[in-house]
Specification:
about 80% helix; mainly alpha
Length: about 100
């Protein structure tokens, strides 16, 4: 039964299920329904808050980098296009 509980908590951490679904599943494992109560609900809510906070912080940290990455990608694409043009011209000269 411990493996099943851990799998449910893993699914919750991976956001494959939400907190309510995790509570429902965990309660279904417990024949009495007494083992899983407020502490589990609190854990599930804390996990969801953590995931939301992490997502917001991750976005905030990397949104300023996006323009630089975009410029670098355009520069690389331009260099590749130029290289392909050079190769194409070289091959045309050999034909």
């Amino acid at each position: 039964m411990k493996k099943e509980r851990m799998k449910i908590l893993q699914l919750l951490a991976e956001e494959a299920i939400d907190a309510d679904e995790a509570v429902r599943l965990l309660k279904s494992l417990d024949s009495d329904g007494d083992i899983i109560d407020e502490e589990l609900q609190q854990f599930a809510e804390n996990s969801e808050r953590f995931a939301e906070d992490f997502s917001e912080r991750f976005y905030a940290a990397f949104k300023d980098v996006e323009p630089e990455l975009d410029a670098a990608a355009k520069e690389v694409l331009g260099a590749v296009a130029s290289l392909l043009d050079d190769v194409s011209q070289s091959l045309k000269g050999k034909a």
